[in-house]
What we know:
Layout: E1 7-8, E2 18-27, E3 31-34, E4 36-37, E5 51-55, E6 58-67, E7 71-75, E8 87-92, H1 94-118, E9 122-128, E10 131-136, H2 145-158, E11 163-169, H3 170-174, E12 193-199, E13 203-206, E14 220-228, E15 234-241
Parallel strand pairs: 1-4
Antiparallel strand pairs: 2-3, 2-8, 5-6, 5-8, 6-7, 9-10, 10-15, 11-12, 12-13, 14-15
Amino acid sequence: xxxxxxxxxxxxxxxxxxxxxxxxxxxxxxxxxxxxxxxxxxxxxxxxxxxxxxxxxxxxxxxxxxxxxxxxxxxxxxxxxxxxxxxxxxxxxxxxxxxxxxxxxxxxxxxxxxxxxxxxxxxxxxxxxxxxxxxxxxxxxxxxxxxxxxxxxxxxxxxxxxxxxxxxxxxxxxxxxxxxxxxxxxxxxxxxxxxxxxxxxxxxxxxxxxxxxxxxxxxxxxxxxxxxxxxxxxxxxxxxxx
Length: 242
């Protein structure tokens, strides 16, 4: 078990793709712990990053991240583990991370549009690179709902609204109206500092993921399907295009 903890670079700069670090723990069962890491470990619906560690002319491919008392990088089976104390260069798989950032921001935009126009809260979510879905506690779906949502999202993308992340004390964060856009508050009671993701003028939510810097960077969003999953339960599926 590592005695120091990983300094998270992913939350400081979502554009960072390469950095230097030192190995704190290297274990075939637990994985690899670095003193500094930009690998997003997964959470809030956003999958973990993939990438590589480069050291001494060797490459170790990272295919998952496990959360525990620290963030444990999971190497591809058969790849070598860098020994404790090794200086490594970490690199994120850019296409995957960028696609996930666009998708995550796009789902926040969708949540903001549906909440603003229909007053519905999110009851579930899931995402993959360039596709995702949100579930809403929406009783009625009016005629033309799918096209109206897609058009409203397109307007917000074109508006190029700034997307910023910042931290607030819990009490201050919960003073923001509608800060929790989910039907159930999923924020653990012990969290004293709340990370906020703010789409200017549209959506403010507690969130721990990585995001693009503006709605225009999300790109075109298509609403591919609206599903009725039961009484008062609607699922909206979206894809993103380049």
